[in-house]
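Regression report. Comparing outputs from two consecutive submissions.

Submission 1:
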Amino acid sequence: MPRLITLDGIDAPDVLNFEIPVSWIPGRMYRKAHALVQDTNKSIYKYNQLDTGKGANHKFYYVLSRSQKVHTTMSHALVKR
């Protein structure tokens, strides 16, 4: 079993690579990301919920889908629906 574990770990990377070649990312993805960052008040809703039993504060993030055309702004009322 120890030999199997050693052999299994030989191909495992030592360091995670967080760099992606720019050529792999299409230009439209940059434009969509930029639009999302510019309109955070309209498309992202942050909700803090206090758990009174444990005294813990939980954070929830709701993101409005860009593909839907019914709602224009993410709000607490929309989350409740």
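Submission 2:
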Amino acid sequence: MSMIDLSETEFHAAIRKTDSPSAMGAVELLKAAFWVLSYPMPAQALMLFQQALEVACKGLLEEIHVLLAADKVEYELSKWAVKERLAAHRLGRKLKTDLDPDDLPLSRTCSFPEAWSRVREMSSLPTFEDAGLAKMTKLRNEITHFGEKQEKRFEYSHAILKIALPALEQFYSECYGGLSLKALLGEGLMRELRVAQEYLAAIGKDKNLPKERLLHTFTCKYQESLVIGVAHLLFDDRGDMLDLGWERDDVNRKIYSMLDSHPNERGHLLGEGLHLSCKICDNIGIIVGIEDEKEYVLDGKRAVDPCSLFCPSCGLNLPRDYKVLANLHFGPITEEMIGDEAWRNEIPR
């Protein structure tokens, strides 16, 4: 799914069966959150993820009954609950108690921590504190009242990947029969979120790793189908997409020649004729760099790890500083992938 794909998914269908408006509202908030995250705008995305999780909890409570999401007992509801005693009282019988609690317009619902706690009574969710939601809510409140702080952009992304997504995954899995975010996003986008989480873990072990492109592969995957600019150049008069194969090859060759003159930034570039496919857009022609003398054996085959990636088709761009992220995303390059002859000619000894 990309940002221009608005079709219903298995996730929508599973939530729609509950007939809970708030639960469906949470799904729309999630779609917006992932869209904003793809730009990336982590501060704004964090606010949406926090709101989505809060509304999702209240949606589950409302699925049972709207009163379970109420902040306090309303006066009208109180009269309805004790209507039998009112009917027996000399003055109470004058009060109207003809209330349908399902149509009760609640003036205020419970807080996020309280909603999570009430859901936790019905499931095995961790406490609000143990799930890290108090920390995330504090960050969200700071953004709400003081705006985004540029120096905290990594902290916002960290909270999304480390707190919001695990909490959402556990919530939907626990409360909706194993429902996964993959049913909403698709396998490709979930893969890149996993890559980002793995790279985040690597940063935790090595503070010197660069952080700015933490969500870069997710962004490229989410926006792979987005057409920007002079779209008429991509289509003929009948609206059919043009075959840009030759043009792409020409662009690849030119970019390869340009990047090949920057070994310090890109490493040793594998030949432009290796026909390696991009993991994001699946187009042939991704430009991969490797570090010299890094050959090793993997499952009985010779292998090397990428230290840089560049895809002219989808915009994937990871220089040598991001070699850990490049390897997590692309994975090892084996002799089987490029052939023995290309291996002898392209892999430095």
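Expected: both submissions complete independently.
Actual: both completed, but the second showed a warning that disappeared on reload.
Relevant detail on submission 2: The longest strand covers residues 306-310.
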